[in-house]
Amino acid sequence: MMTKSRLNLSATATAFLLLSLAAACGSSQPESSGDDAGQSPTPTDAGQSPTPTDAGQSTTPTVLSNTPVNGASNVPLNGSISATFSEAMDPATLTASTFTLTSGAAAVPVPGTVIYSNSTAAFWPAVHLASNSSFIATITTGTKSAPGVALAANHAWSFTTGNTVAPGLPVNLGTAGDYAILAKSGISTVPTSAITGNIGVSPAAATYITGFSLIADSTNVFATSSQVTGKVYASDYAVPSPSNMTTAVSDMETAFTDAAGRAPDVTELGAGNIGGMTLAPGVYKWGTGVLIPTDVTLNGNATAIWIFQIAQDLTMASATNVFLTGGALPKNVFWQVSGAVDLGTTVHLEGVVLTQTAVTLRTGASVNGRLLAQMAVNVDGSTVGINLDGPWTGCCFQRCRRGSQCPKRANLSQ
Question: How many CB atoms lie within 10 A of CB 154?
Fold first, then answer.
């Protein structure tokens, strides 16, 4: 009995000691940390390593750099304002309310569009900035990292404009630039068409790619077609195609928003009829549709940028052409169209089409560029995606199968 009692007392004492130690360990922690209480994470200085937080060792995002630099002067009137973060951010938290630009001592808000890609957010003013004026850009604590951690404090910087306009910048297509044709609801062809480059659909399935007589690869990651010099992808093919297609479509939508957000240099040119015109580089904007009833020429060098912002449809009459001269490149021409794109028979277009709806290429039409549509793309004995880094030489396109002489070929070879 004595032995049993002593064992019970010993066990009781040990249990009490363990409970005391556990209580002591717990009491060494504060009642609530700043992070646990929903407060902002500890601020980090620009350029220093972000501070770990309690939630899964997530870090506090910081702004590593911004453009223009703080205190910059003579900033171009058409430039973008951007910030690069220390880590991936949640794009949904980077908006015109969390990334702002104000003008002057009265802090007058400047309207604009915010674009996020690859840890960098850019604010594109809706109009050219006022000359010789002061501005303050601010990114607020409403901005969060991908894991959901907010900036510790607002990040602000100031600059002053000059009175010059800088050369335009191209639209970043992201992974959408990996495709000659990319659509969300379907791609159809009336054979025989010739597509050089990859094509893909998402969220539509491969059954919405019609007329191509697809042959599935043994991996089922992609398919092939005698009408496509490249690969055919769809959202229901094997991994990694579903995620890759989702990313490409998202990048296409971001590119559309980017192109739409650039400040215009010219508005309502020709009341929407630009037939017969020769256009210099720049951003052109219409609140209507645009009609091309006769040939149009884009004249500029290899770094020149054209962005056409069209609020309604883009229509090209049959047998009309968009030509590039002076060394201009189709990869630097962007047709941002909120309505439909309708290219008549034997039409030729240069550049990247970004449409919020659909694209139709009628018999014998050709595009030296890309067709990126948020609905469908329909081609009919058409040619797409020949040479984005060089001008059209005419006879390499199917439109010249009709036997006519290729127009303006000498000019385009300059």
Answer: 14
How far apart are the C-alpha atoms of 361 and 368, rounded to whole Å? Answer: 12
Strands 186-190 and 209-210: parallel
At 52, the pLDDT band (50, 70, 90 cuts) reads low
Q: What number is the average pLDDT over the span 216-223? A: 98
pTM for the full predicted model:
0.82
Q: Which amino acid is at 389?
A: D
φ, ψ for residue 165 (rounded to 5)? -115, 125
- pLDDT given for residue 114 in this prediction: 97
Separation between Cα atoms, residue 71 and residue 181, nearest integer Å: 43
Cβ-contact 206, 231 below 8 angstroms: no
Measured distance CA(371)–CA(329) in Å, rounded: 16
Q: How many CB atoms lie within 10 A of CB 91?
A: 15
Q: Are strands 215-216 and 223-225 parallel, antiparallel or unpaired?
A: antiparallel
Q: How far apart are CA 256 and CA 369, in angstroms?
A: 15
Q: What is the pLDDT of residues 307-333, one digit of tens each?
A: 999 999 999 999 999 999 999 999 999
